[in-house]
Amino acid sequence: MPATIRVVDSHTEGEPTRVVVDGWPQPQGATMAERRDDLRARYDDLRRAVVCEPRGHDAIVGALLTPPVHPGSVAGIVFFNNGTYLGMCGHGLIGVVRTLEHLGRLSPCVARFDTPVGTVRAELSADGTVTIENVPSHLHARDVVVEVRGYGAVRGDVAWGGNWFFITHADAVPVDMAHLAELNRFTHAIQDAITAQGVTGADGGEIDHIEISAAPTRPDADGLNFVLCSGGEYDRSPCGTGTSATMAALHARGKLALGQEWRQEGIAGGLFTGWLTAGADGTVVPHVRGTAFITSEATLHFDPRDPFRDGIPTAVAQRT
Ligand code: PYC
Predict the structure, then answer these.
(1) Is the pLDDT of residue 317 over 50?
(2) How far is ligand 1, taken at its centre, from the CA of residue 13, in Å?
(3) For burial by CB atoms within 10 Å, which of 196, 204, 213, 315 has the most?
(4) pLDDT at 193 over 90
(5) Is-catalytic flag, 109?
């Protein structure tokens, strides 16, 4: 465990990102997936120490920058949270780009980043908005029904947007901030049912994000979502990978044309604007635009005498 680690914090449409800018030993591996696995094997205590209490909190998504693995990319990124590691993170990528700009390492341009699930692009505009071009996305299975304890049968789509999502329009709980506790209970129950009933993405990919879609409240939005993330916390932003998966599912159902805008409202009121372009082999490539703001720069200290040096694992983090 290093004595200190430097981080820059930001939020993207309400969801926090903590970018590690100095002090974390570099993971080994020729690919970003190998580097993520090396982090999991050798530095998992650092993941907890950096994002969990008492230095962080359950909603933070961390981002470790590495040298790129592909020519033409500016960096590699491994995203992680209070419980695990992510394939991609849309709000997190927007936060990384704004952090690099804040540090003077990036000016308005298009830059490529390598992630464990593929290379993504981000365009930083002069007005501070960031548009990401995500990995190719698709609807994997439609109208999957799971039996959810306490709620009965729940129907949803399984879609890939850089992470695996179960997307449902179930209206058992109103999608608003007044019902956060119930939304958490409902989506955790869906997550438990999906795991127990062996529902997966392609090649057994673990579905670790549950999204409830509802009608928007903002007049400038097309849809509203609540997203339960893999660490057991909900996404304050409209979720970049969730917006990607949602658009891929809508497209497969003939409800969203290529190039047509989809404005996704998040539970906390933030907005992402997305659209699709054609990808290879029948996939679609999601583009998602949002805004991030720097909230702080800090040096985290890890005193060997501190009984909570390695962070306090959350109940969900212990379970996963
Ligand atoms: O924006 O893709 C996203 C995301 C995933 C988990 C939290 N945010």
Answers:
(1) no
(2) 11
(3) 213
(4) yes
(5) no
Q: Which atom of ligand 1 is nearest to the CA of 161?
A: 2
Judge if the beta carbon of residue 91 lies within 6 A of ligand 1.
Answer: yes
For a ligand 1 pocket test, name from 93, 115, 228, 237 the mutation site with the most ligand atoms within 8 angstroms of its C-beta.
237
Peptide bond into 54 cis (omega under 30): yes
pLDDT at 315: 61
Amino acid identity at 123? E
Q: Is the pLDDT of residue 84 over 90?
A: yes
Locus of tokens 């800018």: 21
DSSP 137: B
Angle at 52 between CA 320 and CA 241, to 5 degrees: 65
| Ligand 1 binding pocket includes 52 (Cβ within 6 Å) | no
Q: What would the two tokens of residue 145 be?
A: 């029904």
Q: Which two tokens stand for residue 309?
A: 């040096």
Residue 38: its H or E element: helix 32-42
Mean pLDDT of 121-134: 97
Ligand 1 centroid, distance to 228 Cα (angstroms): 10
pLDDT attached to residue 13: 98
Longest CA pairwise span in the chain (Å) = 59
Return d(Cα 254, Cα 232) in angstroms, integer.
Answer: 32
